[in-house]
């Protein structure tokens, strides 16, 4: 069936932002050094601790510096509210206008992805703030009616698990394509949200249901990718059709290599699957960044789910989370290189406008085609 989408279309690059978290109390008391500086809200400077003594890199030897420029960069003094306003708030307006948008957090375990996306009650993350902004937009519009529905899903070991359902239908969910808004998860619990609090409850409950197994790196590290999708349908004058915007927000699993975590058995299998998804994500980013015609979205569940968000009909923000610790140097460098490649990806966001009469005629045509097939048989 042809896509029933039309309206404005705008090509843009994905917006790549880097966020460096502060050193923790424990790191400070263990004399961990901060090797990351953020300048001018764009530049990230990473000092190479090398193999030499801890104080070496504090001498600011420029030959040991690595510099990266991003669309935006946030140092350890920047709170989530400021980060949200700079990176995500502009996307919310377009979701209310019927565009798709995605925000995802990438980085190694302990770098601050969950803090950025889900956050705490004192400092709520991007997921909560986005939903709050959507509801503010909905409340501010008198001449339209809006329907807001949310789903929360986990990709774990290449299985999809419904985080919005108490029985956690693990492994039985599958992905399909919607001709208008793109990929969706079949059979997932859709929560028709009337208030921000309902979504906050979903986030907190769902986050507790996430598969969090201890690894040697971080006892609370999540081995799963968590995806919150908010669909906003806007209806006004019936003859003008329905605008459907979808906002996807993703807290990815740790990007560190499995070899770093000293895992074995099940943990290693998980690592392999997580790497399969992240490897596929990396391959898609490479293909898109180089303008290749073939992009291997089908190589993993995560990339199938994110297909629209990466190269298609979407406005996208990537938040690359990094730790300032000298112990995390390799992981931080890998994340910065990864984010640097992602800067070249272009997306084309289209307004998703559904005209019910066109939809009916599409279905009538499909039925006529089926009748023809049956009579031929
Ligand atoms: P990840 O999800 O990437 O594994 P977390 O979000 O769990 O990492 O962060 C690791 C720890 O660092 C947590 O205790 C979190 O509260 C803290 N943290 C992360 N980012 C920040 C930040 N910007 N400010 C303060 N604390 C942070
Ligand atoms: Mg996490």
TrEMBL record:
CC terms in the record's Gene Ontology section: microtubule
GO MF annotations in UniProt: ATP binding; microtubule binding; microtubule motor activity
Binding residues annotated for ATP, in chain numbering: 107-114
Domain Kinesin motor: 13-345
Coiled coil: 360-377
Superkingdom, taxonomy of origin: Eukaryota
GO process terms (BP): microtubule-based movement
Keywords, ordered alphabetically: ATP-binding, Coiled coil, Microtubule, Motor protein, Nucleotide-binding
Similarity comment: Belongs to the TRAFAC class myosin-kinesin ATPase superfamily. Kinesin family.
Name listed for the protein in its UniProt record: Kinesin-like protein
The organism of origin for this protein: Symbiodinium natans
Gene: kif19
Segment of the intact protein contained: 1 to 377 of 831
């Amino acid at each position: 069936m042809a896509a029933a989408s039309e309206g404005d279309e705008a090509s843009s690059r994905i917006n790549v932002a880097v966020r460096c978290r502060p050193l923790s109390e424990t790191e400070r008391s263990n004399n961990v050094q901060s090797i990351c500086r953020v300048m001018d809200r764009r530049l990230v400077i990473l000092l190479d601790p090398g193999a030499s003594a801890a104080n070496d890199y504090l001498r600011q030897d420029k030959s040991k510096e690595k510099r990266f420029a991003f669309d935006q960069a946030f140092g350890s003094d920047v709170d989530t509210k400021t980060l949200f306003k700079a990176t995500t708030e502009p996307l919310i307006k377009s979701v209310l206008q019927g565009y798709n948008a995605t925000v995802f957090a990438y980085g190694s375990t302990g770098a601050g992805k969950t803090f950025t996306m889900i956050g705490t009650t004192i400092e709520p993350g991007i997921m909560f703030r986005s939903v709050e902004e959507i509801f503010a937009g909905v409340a501010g519009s008198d001449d339209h009616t809006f329907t807001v529905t949310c789903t929360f899903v986990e990709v774990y070991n290449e299985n999809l698990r419904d985080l919005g359902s108490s029985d956690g239908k693990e492994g039985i969910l599958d992905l399909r394509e919607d001709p208008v808004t793109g990929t969706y998860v079949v059979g997932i619990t859709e929560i028709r949200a009337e208030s921000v609090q309902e979504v906050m409850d979903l986030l907190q409950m769902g986050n507790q249901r996430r598969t969090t197994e201890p690894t040697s790196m971080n006892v609370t590290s999540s081995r799963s990718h968590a995806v919150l999708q908010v669909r906003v349908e806007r209806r006004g004058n019936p003859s003008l059709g329905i605008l459907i915007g979808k906002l996807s927000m993703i807290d990815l699993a740790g990007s560190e290599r499995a070899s770093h975590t000293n895992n074995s058995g099940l943990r290693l299998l998980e690592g392999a699957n997580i790497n399969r998804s992240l490897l596929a994500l990396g391959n898609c980013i490479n293909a898109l960044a180089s303008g290749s015609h073939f992009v291997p979205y089908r190589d993993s569940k995560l990339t199938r789910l994110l297909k629209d968000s990466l190269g298609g009909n979407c406005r996208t923000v990537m938040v690359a989370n990094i730790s300032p610790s000298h112990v995390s140097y390799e992981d931080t460098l890998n994340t910065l290189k990864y984010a640097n490649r992602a800067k070249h990806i272009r997306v084309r966001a289209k307004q998703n406008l559904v005209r019910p009469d066109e939809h009916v005629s599409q279905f009538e045509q499909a039925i006529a085609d089926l009748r023809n097939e049956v009579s031929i048989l």
